[in-house]
Amino acid sequence: MKRIFVWIVALGLTHTLQAQQQPEWKGKFEQLGETLPTPNSYRTASGAPGQNYWQQRADYVISVELDDKTQKLTGTESITYYNNSPDALNFLWLQLDQNIFAPKSMTSETKTGVVKDSIPASFFDNTTGVAVSDYTGGYTIQHVKDATGKTLPHTINYTMMRVDLPAPLKTGEKFTFSVAWSYTEYNHQVYDGRGGYEYFPDDDNYVYTCAQWFPRMCVYDDYQGWQNKQFLGQGEFALVFGNYKVRITVPSDHIVGATGTIQNPKDVLTKEQLERLERAKKTFDKPVLIVTQEEATQKEKTKSTKKSTWEFHADNVRDFAFATSRKFIWDAQAVKVGNNTPLAQSLYPKEGNPLWERESTKAIKNALELYSSRTIDYPYPVAYSVHTAHQGMEYPMICFNGERPDKKGEYSKQTLTGLVEVVVHEVGHNFFPMIVNSDERQWSWMDEGLNTFLEKETIRTRYPELFGTHGTPKGIVPFMRGDKSQMRPIMTTSDNIRRSEFGPNAYSKPSAALTVLRETVMGPELFDRAFKEYAQRWAFKHPKPADFFRTMEDASAVDLDWFWRGWFYTNDNVDVDLADVKWYQLKNETADPEKKQLKTKRGDLATEKDGKNDFSQGPEPLTLTNTSEALKGEFRSQTDDNAIRQRLEGKNIYQLKFKNVGGLVTPLVIEWTYKDGSKEIERIPAEIWRTNENTITKVFIKEKEVTNIVLDPNFELADTEMKNNVFPKKDIPSRFDQFKAK
């Protein structure tokens, strides 16, 4: 023992000296360590908010008017900003997102493109990166004033505006100021924005979806101070929770849907509409039509010249959006979620029917129920789905969604699936990031990826007939096997991901990763409890990636650093090669096992022999010798070698060699097919790779004889090359046909 101890000490000293001379080695199973931010009293090592966690608050009182003839929005807002931070603030930052459409915006100036002959004229802008429209967007800021009416100095930097304060805003203080502004809404068919309008030439009417329509406070937090990164179009929003009181003035024949609850329904609705709305609040089995298609179609023809003001209030939300049109059909039904009964509502023009009347509100209901069961009970009083073409965008309590039937009212299964998916997805965003309020400008995957995962789960459980591969390990394979030279890891700032890869990177790959985590690594019970813990910890707060990673481990006792490192910080992919298979059976020796004169039938080993590579010639004989006295060491008891041989007698011993070709360490899911036709699935944790990340061998003992071995038989690991997952190599299952030509 002393000699062994001395050797260990010497070996340790050698390693210490090497460590001092060489960069630290980072293996795939090493802890993330300093890669994640250091825990503190604001954000703990467990992933929970700390005892000193704080966040800011901003309350808004807004009045806005929409001119249906010019598409101009004119508004004033009063913002009360609460400084809950430990810092004194000399200035405030606001987001001016509409300035992305202003002349010489950073987005337009940095947009790249090429000239191609014979491209469709409407594609010229997107192809070349040069706008040829005569539309002039961006805010006109009329004034910025304090509560007494005194002008406040302000500086506009593209999509950001700094407001200088007359005195430092100290901890615990609040400051009220006002902004007056206007801008012209854009044609969503021409400009790929989050809101805009859709024009319907057949009846000369508009559907408006108004988003990022008012100057909004930036986030100031413990993580990075002001989040005032420019809005470039792809990275979305970081926003502050607060209370809203909003008055929206529109033509009197418009129907308005918005974040929050309507405060003056008697002023803007007919008696019949009020009665229908009250009935919908008590109806749980199907939607109630509040405005019918016939009523909406009639309004398209008359066009009121009067104005009405709709007032909405919303508490503890991070944003406010609204939609308005005289074309809207309106239906609604109540949904039971825990002790809450939110009202699911859909607004859509006749061009959306019959599809929207049948499916939109039903999809809202399914999303609210499934997401609530996996996170927190939906806390808000309403949830809207609003229809206009080619959109999919989310805001608190309201979202804008595309997919419509053709002019005959007919639609395919693909269109039906598209509608259900987009409604579920955008309604689901109420949870991520509207409630679990991550920073989308930095980490798109924290809302899009988590939301795509729960969208997939909703479709899988509520619409199994529509379930496909979107967001699944199988579905992400084409992306994962792509060109790594231009690929970015998931942990990449949103605007730095190529547009063509943004969908897979921010949506599908994180969803596929979480599916692997739930179904294969952790198991549904551990995963669901940990995921729900994360949602409950960070509801109405501002989580960062480390908070998610740490909470998932803290609530499950599963070490997942290897998983986050591989799936989120690298471009590695899963590709495990079942490189070699050997088959052994113990020699049937009743005589002295040390004698080798007994012969066994020549076997075809599961190795290359006589040009074959299969099981057809039987097992290789295996001899177990008696344990020598030298190997027994100081133990006084005797091992029973014969008993060991007896336990192995007649068993089939298989030695499998695995190579990690793709670089991403993974659990192993092995399907064994036996000679009698039966099958068995065996699961090996990813930790099998911890001492050798490249090549491993493992021995299995089976009662029955094996005829076929398949890795990842049900496509749950996102393995990108299925041809090397099978033994014998010639027996690639028909379900792998799609991979054979790859």
From TrEMBL:
Species whose genome carries this gene: Chryseolinea lacunae
Signal peptide positions on this chain: none
Protein name as catalogued: M1 family metallopeptidase
Basic and acidic residues composition bias: residue spans: 592-613
Disordered: annotated span: 592-631
UniProt cross-references to Pfam families, sorted A to Z: Peptidase_M1
CDD domains: M1_APN_like
Entries under InterPro entries matching the protein: Peptidase_M1_dom, Peptidase_M4/M1_CTD_sf
All residue ranges annotated as the Peptidase M1 membrane alanine aminopeptidase domain in the record: 410-567
Domain of life: Bacteria
